[in-house]
Amino acid sequence: MSPFLVVVRSRRVVAATLVSVIAAVPDVLLAQVASAPASAVAVPSAAAAMPPRAIRRDVPITNSIRRAYAAGTRDSTGRPGRHYWQLRTDYAIDVSLDPATSRLTGTARITLHNSSPDPLRELGLRLDPNHFLGNAPHAAPWVPAEVTDGMVISRMSIDGKPVNLASNAAPAGDGGSGARAIVAAQQSAANAATGEAVLRNGRSTSASVRLGTPIAAGAKAVLEIAWSHKLPGGPGTGHRMVQRWADTLYQPTQWFPRVAVYDDLRGWDNELYVGPSEFYNNFGTFDVNIDVPAGWIVSGTGVLKNPEQVLTAAARERLAKVTQSDAVTMIVGPDEIGPGQATAVGNANGRLVWRFHADTVNDFAWATAKKYVWNATRATIPGRGAIPVHMLFLPGRANLFAKAGEISRHALEFYSKLWFPYQFPQLTLQDGPSSGMEYPMVINSNAGAADHETGHQWWPMVVSNNETWYGWMDEGFNQYMNILSDADADSKAPVFDGLGQNYGRTSGAEAEPPMMWNANYAGPGFYGFTTYQKTPLMLSALGGIVGDSAVQRAHREWAQAWMFKHPSPWDYMFFMNKALGRDLSWFWNSWLFTTESVDGRLVSVKTQGIRTTVTVAQDGNMPAPIVLEVKFAGSGPAIRPMKNAVMTDSLTALVTWPVDVWFGGRRSIAADLVFGGRKIERITLDPARRFPDRTPADNQWPASAPTAAPPAR
Q: Residues 52-71: pLDDT tens digits?
């Protein structure tokens, strides 16, 4: 999802506008920060009257991750443990769309494979269409398009045995009487015979089935559900709040009953769907049959298995040529409308069934319209070859998709080289009311967010984290890599300078939650910042310590280790520590578990003979290495080398001291510069602007002259 991407460029929407940037310092110079000798000592100052700065140098360990380590499901190296497991859910779905009522009616046969060591005494269910009930909780500013009757379940069984559905029944009255009816139904379900399977919270987005017979460890069970719900029309506010345009275009999302994730950290994921926060799903196989009126084109996750039954001969012939070149091929044109032209003729009822199959995916999305234009091009995936990239859009919106194929192709090919090859057989861009949302092999996007949404095919579609709890591992990582992709598309070097420093402008706000806060409760003011924008700032700072290329190399290794699995933040932190060859726990603690900043400043600069002593203070509670850029006069005695300095040009040195110099609790450090007798003309603290700072103006010596006040009038 991309509601917080704020700048539209001709090629894509990117995150690179978080702050202004300056010329990059080479990675090799930034990497010196962590390894330079600490020729700096504490000095008395005004800050000396304050208590020592308490610096936590380990990562907080919660009960859930502690249990996972003890069970061996996860490893303190950040890799999956020797006993790692995850559930698998395979779906066979038949669904029919009735445009006259905008209603989906479907049946699902879900085979759950209990790979856990636990007998499952209940099943968690995600019934997201209940978000559109009038009494469902919503996170501001998300506003559903319309109130519906939610997900109406007419039949449910477990291994052929019926499930008590009393809690899904619509209440007899409105307001207080309706609420009391729901409570009564819940109590009735709770008091049902213990041998009976019972649906609980059936009118919630997070429901469960109390099982009459537990599903044994290593066993499987078949859940069958018949349901229906109305697809909400507009207007609404927020992604997924509108799922159709009138009765001629439908973009179903979170449209079928899903089995929730049961994992080694918390058991069943029972978080409510309240709007902004996204999803946490099991991997499995999907076989989905979609019944729509003939003439309507359908796109979706997976591969179309019956093109000869639903497409015209002309469309099939055009599709066969898509992967032969980068040219855009028109599969169904704007003048090809209706049965026999846009699609095959249809059956006796004037309808067609489109059959899709997808292996090892964690969701399924689709779209259909009465007058879609269908274009296609290709992307060439390293090591895998050419795959089709489909674009389906309304004829009057063709301009929004003119560059969409080019942008998506670049994203697929670039991210395949950056992290690992794209894992799926195709990608589809779907036009509709949601213009920035992602699913396996599907992005609901035009050219504007095509790069960002394509990036989601890596996370969470392959590296599948819990987005509801830790959205920064999904949206934030994506924002970071969008900067890389945008620069590559423009044949420029990516610039991360300035991003880390920019966090100082936000740090300290009482309403800001830490990144490790459950994203469902981040609040309307900071959800976008914490989930999307802060991660590039954090990884900018990390690049300032170890180098940007090292960050990307370690991140690549982590991603490959967790393909088609569910990593936690601790897996990421500890994997990165090991891959980068240093204990960065102090860094992760500050950035992920707090809202602190560095607030560095130059206190004083004093020269005596060939020695210049620079007093550096850090007024915040986040520690950072000391990086000084020293500019010399154009003439004078030869510039002598320093062990912890690198000359970036003939008159400029970059001098570093590692973060360790602060671990004793000091708030200021006297850093000695001994370069010989050459005059120093300027010193800048954190010249690449990688570390959070509220007042960067005090990072330079001599201090910049204050701006003159305007004359009084």
A: 899 999 999 999 999 999 99
